[in-house]
Write a structure and sequence with these properties.
Elements lengths: L1 H23 L5 H15 L17 H4 L15
The structure holds iron/sulfur cluster.
The site of iron/sulfur cluster (SF4) has 11 residues, from α2.
């Protein structure tokens, strides 16, 4: 059980940061970038976004979280 949780967390981190690198290099698809930008706009307006650009509910860095396409990375408050 604990191993699955660690694996899931690792997969989410890999997805988020690999897509962050792809975005920075201009390698993301237009459809993925639309998803990332829509999520980003929601997080930027959210009361749970910290000054250090983290989600105060789950603790994740938003630059990666908003780019993870792993379904387990969804907003913990169901905003996206
Ligand atoms: S992930 Fe959800 S709760 Fe966290 S900052 Fe973004 S919108 Fe807010």
């Amino acid at each position: 059980m604990e191993k699955n949780k660690i694996t899931n967390t690792f997969n989410q981190i890999v997805s988020g940061y690999s897509n962050l690198v792809k975005s920075k290099l201009g390698l993301s698809s237009d459809s993925d970038e639309k998803i990332f930008k829509a999520r980003r706009a929601i997080c930027n307006a959210c009361e749970h976004k910290s000054a250090l650009d983290r989600c105060l509910v789950c603790g994740c860095p938003l630059a990666a979280k908003t780019r993870s396409l792993n379904p387990l990375s969804a907003c913990p408050n169901n905003h996206w």
